[in-house]
């Protein structure tokens, strides 16, 4: 299956020397990931503007990620039939429409509904963009994945800043801004990205679910489910606890995003090479749990520091979980990724809704304790199921996740075409 030129695959190609199509897709990916953290700094402003409670406003995340989770079963089905380029454009078009409509909302119910449509568009785009970047990038799969993770980190860091700058003027403006940026991405991909070859076999709606029958992939997804609960408690609930102006909250989450990007792209691979993926992941989850407890019980300044610091642990976890999901089973990478994301995004939908409710039932500290327990449970799954996560067909998962240069092009082909 590997038709690439080994010599070319082994050349050291700069991550910055990429075709225009790759930059167009990566740029749109930055904006797509910006949309996740965009509303963070303006959650209190939205609650005030629409006379809504924190738990009602947190449904912006719940509807978004619930639809994203379900859509993971649809994205492979769609892209394997209409191709990657058309799937990207369909996703971008949906984001442009629903982000724009979100800015016109007169009630929290309307806003939640429009965010759900936005989540469908984002799922179609984000799940397809990695395969497209891998298929079109220079330098093989390693450079392409690094570029994709850089886009993720940059988007997660800049989203809160954009939300703060525009939201300080009016809470509606960040939504209009996102619609405008995604429209630019739509035009860029229309002009510069050629249609990608369709996979030889079409993906069915149930293929991602069937892939979860593999013990290793199921274990990675189960652990990531509990981790994502902790992750999105930070992202969706902390802004209400900090209770700061959009600019100050945006600055906090910008620092959080910078650490997420640095540790995801630069630090995590080094830690994995030295200590192994499972040790790094288990330790990072326990440290995240400790950070959350201190965040919940510390002073306001301590809460700010711990919020920013959590970005480091989240960055490490994101990278290791992604590599486990893509390397631990024998399922095609897009199918394995869809099944894994189908499970973990349900926790991302649950946390924003449950955290404010838990505060209403108890006090402001307990949501962070629950999130910390979830992180520890995620680490426990890694420990208990490590045999299923360590070896696949006699190969170490880390070795498979970091292929040798001569195998990089083959991995790119596999991921691009499923």
How would you describe what is shown here?
The protein contains 19 helices and two strands. Strands 1-2 form a two-stranded antiparallel sheet. The longest helix has 30 residues, at 140-169. It starts with 5 loop residues before the first helix and ends with a helix. It is mainly alpha-helical and 418 residues long. The protein has a single domain, classed as Growth Hormone, Chain: A (Up-down Bundle).
In a few lines, what is going on in this structure?
This protein is mostly helical and 418 residues long.
Query: Within the largest sheet, what's the order of strands?
Result: 1-2
| CATH class categorisation | Mainly Alpha
CATH superfamily: MFS general substrate transporter like domains
Tell me the fraction of residues in β-strands, as a range: under 5%
Oligomer: single chain
Helix and strand sequence:
HHHHHHHHHHHHHHHHHEEHH
The number of E-state strands comes to 2
- Helicity, as a percent range: over 70%
The major β-sheet equals: 2 strands, antiparallel
Low-confidence stretches: 1-12, 391-418
CATH topology: Growth Hormone, Chain: A
What number of structural domains do the residues give? Answer: 1
> What's the pLDDT, averaged over the residues?
81
Please compute the radius of gyration using only Cα atoms.
20 Å
Shape: globular
Structural class by helix and strand composition: mainly alpha
The helix count comes to 19
CATH architecture: Up-down Bundle
Query: What is the terminal-to-terminal distance?
Result: 12 Å
